[in-house]
Amino acid sequence: MKKTLILTAAAGMLFAASPAFAQGIITKKDGSEIKAATIEVSAKGDYRYMEQGDKTKAWKSIKKNDVKWAWLPMPKEIKQLDKSASRSAADYVKLAEEFKAVSWEPYCLYQAAKIELAAGHKQEAAAILEKLQEYKRVNPKNEEHLMNAYELLVRTYIELGAFDKAVPVADALVESPNDNVACSALMAKGDALKAKAGNSGDKETLKAAALAYFEAALLFPKSEKNAAALLAAYKCMMDAKDARAQKFAEILKKNHPKSPEAASLK
After folding, report:
1. 142, 10, 8: which is closest to 68 by C-alpha?
2. Long-range contacts for 193-197 (Cβ within 8 Å, ≥24 apart)?
3. For a tag site, which of 7, 66, 72, 130 has the least CB within 10 Å?
4. What is the rounded distance in angstroms from the CA atom of residue 224 to the CA atom of residue 146?
5. Do 104 and 78 meet the contact criterion of CB atoms below 8 Å apart?
6. pLDDT by residue (tens digit) across 79-129?
7. Residues 6+ apart with CB under 8 A from 52
8. Mean pLDDT of the residues in the chain
9. Which element (helix H / strand E) includes 229?
10. Which helix (H) or strand (E) holds 64?
11. pTM above 0.70?
């Protein structure tokens, strides 16, 4: 028996989508875009779809190798699981695979990892999130979910003491078009390097951490984390016994004179 997964954005069917999102998208590798009311994904990963507004409701086909990414509004199965008091990480992992073809894998694995972390299972959470490390960042529809997952992976690695693993993931996050995500990534990179230095006082690692913090402050001057980034850079340079730490202190006092961070320097 040929196994297929049928997904639709029509209200009352598989998706209870609002009118504003009552259509899915298939973006082809040639750059063209298809607005689809219904998408069917075969076990081999090939797509069939009905175009939005097509009164004939004719099915059209497209090979998976011709598809750059496909997306549909959040499936009702995921919505229902989000509301379930008995939801488990395994439930989300299952849905991640089921709705991978329409871009819901990052969201589901992120939710699964959060459940594992809430239970104190850091290794398990990291293993779940690591599945996304080779994920191709081509779909703006799930960029936020993917970046949230990467940021959580960085924080999880830091808690596990896997600092050398945390830094490359943070570097990947910096490439995000979302300024908040990129700023947080640089802060997380600084945190990882600072934690790696630990009590050893390794000057080079501390300076690398200071640089990451300063990059966050320099590249994102309007971020609410700007003062915190400057203070963190200052502290790392102080720990490294580098006289240039005072330059960070001066910038902090000048740019955020009334901030708690500036007050802490007095």
Report:
1. 142
2. 193/163, 193/167, 194/232, 194/236, 195/158, 195/161, 195/163, 196/163, 196/164, 197/239
3. 66
4. 22
5. yes
6. 999 999 999 999 999 999 999 999 999 999 999 999 999 999 999 999 999
7. 23, 35, 36, 37
8. 88
9. helix 226-239
10. none
11. yes
Tokens 């409701």 found at:
57
- Joined tokens for residue 134: 């080779």
Q: Is the dihedral of CA 142, 143, 145, 146 positive or negative?
A: positive
Strands (E), the chain: 4-8, 24-28, 33-42, 47-51, 60-62, 67-71
Given the DSSP bridges, would you call strands 33-42 and 47-51 parallel, antiparallel or unpaired?
A: antiparallel
Based on the number of CB atoms within 10 Å of its own CB, is 202 exposed (0-12), middle (13-18) or buried (19 or more)?
Answer: middle
CATH class for the domain made up of 4-71: mainly beta
d(C-alpha 24, C-alpha 206), whole Å: 47
Residue 86 three-state SS:
coil
Residue 15 — pLDDT band, cuts 50, 70, 90?
Answer: very low
The two structure tokens encoding residue 180: 């908040």
Taking the C-alpha atoms of residue 182 and residue 189, their distance in angstroms, rounded to an integer, is: 11
| Domain ranges for the chain | 4-71, 74-160
d(Cα 231, Cα 247) in Å, to the nearest integer? Answer: 11
